[in-house]
């Protein structure tokens, strides 16, 4: 067994841990239980996890819980105390302190005045947005991306991205030049949350895409998805992913209906220009790409 095969074994084991974390964010996560899921020694598995993923398992859990909490604050009326409890905090004060350290404001202020609120005036007719009003019409070349399917809340599409990165690592395909792309098929305001369909994808440099064809054909976990070429309305969004719902509402409800353009019969996609593992939520940059006729 060569070095690549050894790494693949570890990737497979730790992928099971990530799946368990995503599916049990409401529950206390026992380190010993995670070691059992990884089939690794409880003395060493977390060091392996940190070495391979660049962050401790505790950091992963905190990041995912706060990411979800921001979504609850921006897009629901769930009481903050309940959000704190679901995020694994024993007190509201502890949750507020941690949330503020990551998002720059306490939870109540984020709900009232967070970056998602900048989309609301234009939607309600009370005013115009100052900094996100501009949409660029851009021609996008057709693309073929490697992708992993996701069914469920869009805020949890990171689970599919983690599975995809594990597959790429197993096949020695992690490239700094790759582009991260999410494809979203359903309207979250119409389709039940647990039935929302999306894909986590990466665009690899051309020569590498040709090389992976055989590996994809032999592995049903990853597929090739084609993204149509043509004109797109591109909204460059800076801020937490929890703002995205409000951004979409503005893009469709304000910009599109006033633009004189028609949406094409193709799904919207997002391109992520930096990583939530290395970037503060307020500095995340996402391009929302709406296909046009």
UniProtKB/TrEMBL annotation:
<dbReference type="InterPro" id="IPR020449">
    <property type="entry name" value="Tscrpt_reg_AraC-type_HTH"/>
</dbReference>
<dbReference type="Pfam" id="PF06445">
    <property type="entry name" value="GyrI-like"/>
</dbReference>
<dbReference type="InterPro" id="IPR018062">
    <property type="entry name" value="HTH_AraC-typ_CS"/>
</dbReference>
<feature type="domain" description="HTH araC/xylS-type">
    <location>
        <begin position="15"/>
        <end position="113"/>
    </location>
</feature>
<dbReference type="InterPro" id="IPR010499">
    <property type="entry name" value="AraC_E-bd"/>
</dbReference>
<dbReference type="GO" id="GO:0043565">
    <property type="term" value="F:sequence-specific DNA binding"/>
</dbReference>
<keyword id="KW-0238">DNA-binding</keyword>
<dbReference type="InterPro" id="IPR009057">
    <property type="entry name" value="Homeodomain-like_sf"/>
</dbReference>
<dbReference type="InterPro" id="IPR050908">
    <property type="entry name" value="SmbC-like"/>
</dbReference>
<dbReference type="GO" id="GO:0003700">
    <property type="term" value="F:DNA-binding transcription factor activity"/>
</dbReference>
<dbReference type="Pfam" id="PF12833">
    <property type="entry name" value="HTH_18"/>
</dbReference>
<dbReference type="InterPro" id="IPR011256">
    <property type="entry name" value="Reg_factor_effector_dom_sf"/>
</dbReference>
<keyword id="KW-0804">Transcription</keyword>
<dbReference type="InterPro" id="IPR029442">
    <property type="entry name" value="GyrI-like"/>
</dbReference>
<dbReference type="InterPro" id="IPR018060">
    <property type="entry name" value="HTH_AraC"/>
</dbReference>
<protein>
    <submittedName>
        <fullName>AraC family transcriptional regulator</fullName>
    </submittedName>
</protein>
<keyword id="KW-0805">Transcription regulation</keyword>
């Amino acid at each position: 067994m060569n070095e690549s095969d050894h790494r693949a074994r570890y990737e497979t084991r730790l992928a099971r841990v990530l799946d368990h974390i995503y599916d049990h964010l409401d529950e206390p996560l026992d380190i010993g239980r995670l070691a059992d899921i990884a089939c690794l020694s409880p003395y060493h598995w977390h060091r392996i996890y940190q070495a391979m993923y660049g962050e401790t398992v505790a950091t992963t859990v905190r990041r995912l819980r706060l990411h979800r909490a921001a979504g609850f604050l921006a897009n629901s009326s769930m009481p903050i105390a309940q959000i704190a409890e679901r995020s694994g905090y024993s007190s509201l004060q502890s949750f507020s302190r941690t949330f503020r350290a990551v998002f720059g404001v306490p939870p109540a202020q984020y709900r009232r005045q967070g970056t998602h609120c900048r989309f609301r005036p234009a939607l309600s007719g009370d005013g115009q947005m100052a900094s996100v009003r501009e949409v660029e019409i851009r021609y996008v070349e057709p693309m073929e991306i490697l992708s992993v399917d996701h069914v469920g809340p869009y805020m949890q599409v990171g689970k599919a991205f983690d599975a995809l990165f594990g597959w790429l690592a197993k096949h020695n395909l992690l490239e700094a030049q790759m582009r991260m792309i999410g494809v979203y098929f359903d309207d979250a305001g119409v389709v039940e949350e647990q039935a929302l369909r999306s894909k986590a994808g990466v665009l690899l440099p051309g020569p590498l895409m040709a090389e992976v064809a055989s590996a994809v054909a032999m592995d049903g976990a990853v597929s090739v998805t084609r993204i149509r070429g043509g004109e797109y309305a591109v909204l460059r969004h800076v801020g937490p992913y929890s703002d995205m719902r409000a951004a979409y509402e503005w893009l469709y409800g304000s910009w599109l209906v006033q633009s004189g353009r028609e949406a094409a019969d193709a799904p919207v996609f997002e391109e992520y220009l930096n990583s939530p593992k290395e970037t503060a939520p307020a500095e995340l940059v996402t391009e929302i790409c709406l296909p046009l006729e």
